[in-house]
């Protein structure tokens, strides 16, 4: 496994003191047949490699990388029934807080101006964990209104948790070039407790002017480098039990007016509460199992929901 140590100043929306997160690359597929990444995330399926490097001047978008760093990518063009790649099952070592499967996506018309994927065209990602069946989880479509295109540098992010086992769809509202609504960063987050992960991707494009390009399909494991549950040190705040199933108790050391905010592994706020007592409690029974971060009066704690 390749390791990357990141020094971060904040965890999701919280402004916290300097902490470190360890990120391990568990597997990656870069579609570069001459320089495959190691550890390689192997796949089966009739792959079509794009080796252009940069889109033509008459394309949409023009003069844009067709692979990350002008490298190869997986192309889906004129695939009305869909082209399917199934990625191998990766066994997950114990000790991670979260597992992330992600890829980079561009939508283009490589042969003329205009065009690009519309709402009938899509890239679908199915997931399987712990040896279970695949289920649809993340689908990216072209624009709702009409054809659209965007580069890998587009800033849209399509991020979902692995549960529930239902499909979530992302699509630009507007047609044409989409630098903010174009979803170039696509990610599915799993809890670190899973034993294995596999994904299956389908690229569907209805004509020669509708092209999806996928690159750097990556699986990572993340954990706090300190190996402790407290991200910021505030001995006056106690949270228990942890892990928890339904009720989490909080002791603050004072009865001053305060606040509680809880976010999930995607950085989405799931619970907020005003605090008025030294001893408080919060019900998390309706939340999916996984990793959460709770901010109590500026003290951030990692919570595991079983």
Question: Brief overview, please?
Answer:
By secondary structure, the protein is an all-beta fold.
Strand content: over 45%
Count of alpha/pi helices: 0
Name the poorly predicted regions: 2-19, 226-230
Secondary-structure element order, N to C? EEEEEEEEEEEEEEEEEEEEEEEE
- Mean pLDDT value: 87
CATH superfamily of the largest domain: Galactose-binding domain-like
CATH architecture of the largest domain: Sandwich
Our Rg estimate from Cα atoms comes to 21 Å
- Beginning-to-end CA distance, first to last residue: 27 Å
Q: Main sheet? A: 8 strands, mixed
The CATH topology name of the largest domain reads Jelly Rolls
- Please report the first level of CATH classification, the CATH class of the largest domain: Mainly Beta
Question: What portion of residues is helical?
Answer: under 10%
């Amino acid at each position: 496994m390749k390791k990357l140590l990141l020094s971060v100043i904040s965890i999701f929306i919280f402004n916290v003191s300097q902490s470190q997160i360890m990120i391990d690359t568990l597997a990656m597929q870069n579609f570069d047949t001459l320089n495959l990444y190691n550890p390689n995330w192997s796949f089966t399926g009739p792959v079509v490699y794009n080796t252009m490097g940069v889109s033509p001047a008459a394309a949409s978008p023009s003069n844009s990388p067709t692979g990350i760093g002008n490298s190869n990518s997986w192309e889906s063009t004129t695939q009305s029934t869909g082209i399917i790649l199934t990625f191998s099952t990766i066994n997950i070592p114990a000790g991670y807080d979260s597992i992330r499967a992600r890829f980079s996506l561009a939508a283009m018309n490589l042969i003329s101006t205009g065009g690009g994927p519309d709402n009938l065209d899509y890239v679908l990602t199915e997931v399987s964990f712990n040896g279970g069946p695949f289920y649809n989880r993340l689908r990216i479509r072209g624009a709702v209104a009409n054809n659209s295109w965007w580069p890998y540098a587009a800033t849209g992010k399509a991020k979902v948790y692995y549960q529930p086992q239902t499909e979530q769809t992302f699509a630009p509202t507007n047609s044409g070039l989409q630098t903010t609504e174009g979803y170039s960063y696509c990610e599915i987050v799993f809890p670190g407790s899973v034993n294995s992960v596999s994904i299956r991707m389908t690229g569907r494009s209805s004509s020669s002017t509708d092209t999806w390009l996928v690159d750097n399909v990556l699986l990572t494991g993340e954990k706090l480098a300190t190996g402790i549950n407290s991200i910021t040190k505030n001995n006056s705040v106690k949270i228990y039990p942890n892990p928890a199933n339904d009720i989490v108790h909080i002791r603050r050391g004072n009865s001053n007016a305060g606040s509680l905010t809880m976010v999930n592994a995607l950085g989405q706020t799931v619970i907020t509460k005003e605090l008025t007592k030294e001893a408080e409690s919060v019900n998390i029974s309706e939340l999916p199992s996984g990793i959460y971060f709770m901010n109590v009066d500026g003290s951030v704690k990692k919570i595991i929901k079983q």
